[in-house]
Structures are given as structure tokens and as C-alpha cells.
Design a protein that fits this description.
Helix content: 10-25%
Number of helices: 2
Number of strands: 7
Largest sheet: 3 strands, antiparallel
Strand order of the largest sheet: 2-5-6
Mean pLDDT: 97
Length: about 70
């Protein structure tokens, strides 16, 4: 799947990954709008990496153009 195809699935709460990564990456998910210290926190992506937990995720150009995204 392309990033354009997978984005609506992420917005629906599904977890996704690229088949081409093949490493410790478990999945990427979208965290919806939240509030922090009384202020709006905009949606953001996180990636779950085995043994490390969550970290912020920003797709690269290669990720955006890839066609190997899948729902996990």
C-alpha cells in the first residue's frame, strides 16, 4: 500500500509498518489531538521500536513514496 492509502487507516486507529524495514520497528501509529498544560497538542506520529518503546516518527520522502506499507 502507499502512504496515501494507509493514512486513512491510521486515522481510524490502525497500526502500520513498512515491509521494507525488517528491523526492530513494530509499528507506526497516529496519536490524535490532545491537551497538554491546558494547550492544544496537535496530532503526531509515533513508532514503537522493540525494546525501546515509543518515539516520535516523521516519515521521510522515501517513506512517503514507498508502496510497501501494510496494516499490522
Amino acid at each position: 500500500m502507499t502512504f496515501e492509502e494507509i493514512l486513512p487507516r491510521m486515522k481510524a486507529g490502525e497500526k502500520v509498518i513498512r515491509e521494507g524495514w525488517g528491523g526492530a520497528e513494530l509499528y507506526v501509529k497516529l496519536v490524535g489531538e490532545k491537551e497538554l498544560d491546558g494547550l492544544k497538542l496537535n496530532p503526531y506520529f509515533v513508532i514503537n521500536v522493540e525494546g525501546e518503546g515509543y518515539t516520535m516518527f516523521t516519515p521521510t520522502v522515501c517513506d512517503l513514496l514507498a508502496e510497501d506499507w501494510k496494516v499490522v
